[in-house]
Design a protein that fits this description.
The complex is a heterodimer of chains A (113) and B (114).
Chain A: E1 3-5, E2 10-14, E3 19-21, E4 24-26, E5 32-38, E6 44-50, E7 56-58, E8 64-68, E9 73-78, E10 87-95, E11 98-103, E12 107-112
Parallel strand pairs in A: 2-12
Antiparallel strand pairs in A: 1-4, 3-9, 5-6, 5-10, 7-8, 8-9, 10-11, 10-12
Chain B: E1 4-7, E2 10-13, E3 19-25, E4 31-38, E5 42-49, E6 56-57, E7 64-66, E8 76-78, E9 87-94, E10 104-105, E11 109-113
Parallel strand pairs in B: 2-11
Antiparallel strand pairs in B: 1-3, 3-8, 4-5, 4-9, 5-6, 7-8, 9-10, 9-11
């Protein structure tokens, strides 16, 4: 069965510091992987997605993620966090042939001034 | 461009009452989805529709029904609400039905069942 684990429920970083949010997935075949961001009171917005090819993918707002098959991970990174990045971040996985998403439980990011 | 609109924004509902959450998209997307978001559980798929006239069950379909009479609208109905259906409900759509399609989300409906 497909599953997505985000081990960190809450993370607090200082503005300007680097950020890494962890995501591990369990999936039988090559997955399609996504990161979404949810600002307070809003719907989800796509940050980036990985299908194949280069394992380092760039997204919007300066975010990037790296697919590591050997570790079943798809961690999200940003070199320098801004206060406006405070939000909840969701990792999701889907199959190539079926548009059913499985979401992680989310990581809430707080940014200290 | 509105994208996806959901109504109502929030609702307090007495247990046992019937409720329909509305979802409309203006992107002419083929596929639409309903998720519920609960603290610590992320988003879970309730029902989906790959094209007008067809629907399918997701992870947590019990107590919910959907219809897809046309491309734009995908209402979610709670026939007899129970407190465990208290949640935030998100509607989403995607242009296609393959696993790589980006899903676009509405702003959500907050539902409290008492």
């Amino acid at each position: 069965a497909q599953s997505v684990t985000q081990p960190d429920i809450h993370i607090t970083v200082s503005e300007g510091a680097s950020l890494e949010l962890r995501c591990n997935y369990s999936y039988g075949a090559t997955p399609y992987l996504f990161w979404y961001v949810q600002s307070p009171g809003q719907g989800l917005q796509l940050l980036l997605k990985y299908f194949s090819g280069d394992t380092l993918v760039q997204g919007i707002k300066g975010f990037e993620a790296e697919f590591k098959r050997s570790q079943s991970s798809f961690n999200l990174r940003k070199p320098s966090v801004h206060w406006s990045d405070a939000a909840e971040y969701f990792c999701a996985v889907s199959r190539k042939d079926f548009n059913k998403f499985y979401f992680g439980s989310g990581t809430k990011l707080n940014v200290k001034p | 461009i509105a994208g996806i609109t959901q109504a109502p924004t929030s609702q307090i509902l007495a247990a046992g009452r019937r409720m329909t959450l509305r979802c409309t998209q203006d992107m002419r997307h083929n596929a639409m989805y309903w998720y519920r978001q609960d603290l610590g559980l992320g988003l879970r798929l309730i029902h989906y529709s790959n094209t007008a006239g067809t629907t399918g069950k997701g992870e947590v379909p019990d107590g919910y029904s959907v219809s897809r009479a046309n491309t734009d609208d995908f209402p979610l109905t709670l026939a007899s609400a129970v407190p465990s259906q208290t949640s935030v409900y998100f509607c989403a759509s995607s242009a296609g039905t393959s696993g790589g399609e980006t899903q676009y989300f509405g702003p959500g409906t907050r539902l409290l069942v008492l």
